Amino acid sequence: MMKLTNISAIGISNMGWSCKESLESYKKVISDPDRAERLKVCECVFCYYQSVMTTQGYTSRECAICGETFSWGNGDTPNLCLPCAKTNKLCRYHICDLDFKERRKDVTKPKDLTKQGDK
């Protein structure tokens, strides 16, 4: 187990920087200052404001809705093509509503079988 005294000054300064960056990012998630641009590229607040480490190089994927193959400039390839995401108002990455609205009824509730005549 590492003792607190073994943490280097560089490690502490880097930790402070990442905490500061995370806090600024979370503030943007709450306030959504670039909402118009975010909606234009069809990303939810988490995808748009959180930084992601990814691989370089072109990748391709089939759209989860229309099945058309599209290319992307890095390894963080979206699940939806832009036309399908715009038409359905969905996040390209998470395939969720852009404003996190619930769009369907809860299907996890068990059905009441007594109404079907089973006794």
Please tell me about this protein's structure.
The protein is α+β, with helices and mostly antiparallel strands. The protein has helices spanning 9-31, 35-40, 45-49, 82-88; strands spanning 56-62, 69-74. Helices cover 34% and strands 11% of the residues. It has a two-stranded antiparallel ribbon with strand order 1-2. The termini are far apart. It contains 4 helices and 2 strands; from the N terminus they run H-H-H-E-E-H. Mean pLDDT is 77; it is low at 1-15.
From the helix content, strand content and strand pairing, which structural class follows? alpha+beta
How many helix segments? Answer: 4
- Chain-averaged pLDDT: 77
Order of helices and strands: HHHEEH
**Which strand order spans the largest sheet, edge to edge or round the barrel?**
1-2
Write the layout of secondary structure elements.
Layout: H1 9-31, H2 35-40, H3 45-49, E1 56-62, E2 69-74, H4 82-88
Antiparallel strand pairs: 1-2
